[in-house]
Amino acid sequence: MRIGSLLFAGNAVTNERVLRAELDFREGDTLTTATLARRLELNRRRLFNLQLFHQVLVQAVCREGSLTVLFSVQERWYTFPIPIFSLADRNFRSWLDRSDRWKRLDYGVHIVRRNFRGRNEQILANIQLGFNRKYELFYEAPGYGKRRRIGFGGGISYYQSHALDYATYRDRLVNYRQEDGFPIERRYAVAGIRWRRTVQHRTALDVSYHREKVSDSLYHRNATYYLGGPQRQYVEVSLVSTLNQRNTFAYPLTGQFAEVGVAYRSFLTGSSPNITTLWGHYARYVALGGPLYYSVGVQGRVRIARQVAYADNRAFGYDVLVRGYDAYVIEGRHYGLVQQGLTYRLFDAGRVKLNGINNAKINSIPLVLYLNTFVDVGYVRNPALSSATNRLPNRALASTGLGLHLATYYDWVFTLEYTRILEGQGGFFFRTQFPI
User: Fold this and answer.
1) Which of 286, 303, 315, 417 lies at a CB distance of 3.0 to 4.6 Å from 380, suitable for a disulfide?
2) Do 187 and 211 touch, CB atoms closer than 8 A?
């Protein structure tokens, strides 16, 4: 069947060119009846995974061999001024361990404008005061031109804090708080280009300039926090390619995800050796039948340098984690992590309508509850570290647990998990993202 016309409905803000650029067919193309349903569904998911719409529907009508395809979308709310009131630590558990926890709070405003000018551009600004101060402005344009293949990203950031974790002892961070002034100050600027084949496949090349400084008091406590002095400047070039073929980006149940990256950091001051970092991440999601799903993820990193500063030697406990080890940090140049999960859909309320609110962008809340059991296994390689100081590097780390996952409004995911680790400790943990 020949495609006679492509129609779009509901895109009051979104430019039609943005939608057409995601599709793998155009007017005049021919589709076979045997693959028609599958092709339409794949393209519907592409539009949905732009994360611009609450829902995307597709219909096709054939008359005299000519096919009319209609995509109906329900747009989201795109401007979010979100108040900031957060903990000034890497997670809730580490915040609880602080004796001055109630002083370690951040407040301010986080402003996001998605789908700027109807072209899927994004502007993000942060004005954060309190314990950690942060002022940021970023702009991201996925693609320009008729096919929207080449895009641009850039931004600036300034950060300072009243305290800094400057060492690790017994696998826990040692904190220094400075009453007058700030022990850490960081600023950077970044710009780069994006090559975007589809919403599922993109490559980013970024160049960034960084200037960082710690106070003399902190540098005297750890002279290796930065190598060569209390301040440093460097330029970093990174290349990252991502293939995201998951059914949904927020809480995936089927499909796959792959990402590989390389970064080269060249120091402009001090005696720090340059650093080359390689990393990769792959995850697979499989439907087992009915409400049961399986997921597995593998990721790793290799950091190549003659010597690295304490600030560059982070592995588990920050962005990457063996679940259950939230109270600890594990340092090292190289790491590997395997995560598995078995998920059962307990409850799906569909879309709950909020009576009294007429705006379709905010009056419909999806609610889906999942039961999840998981196993994580990880390893951090750090041959230069003394086992008398920190015992978790250079040994197998493992955990298992049971959790409840709630997928809801605007791609938010909330998880409550009970986890036990290999060392015999256990506890409840709350997170706000899909874990694999």
Assistant:
1) 315
2) yes
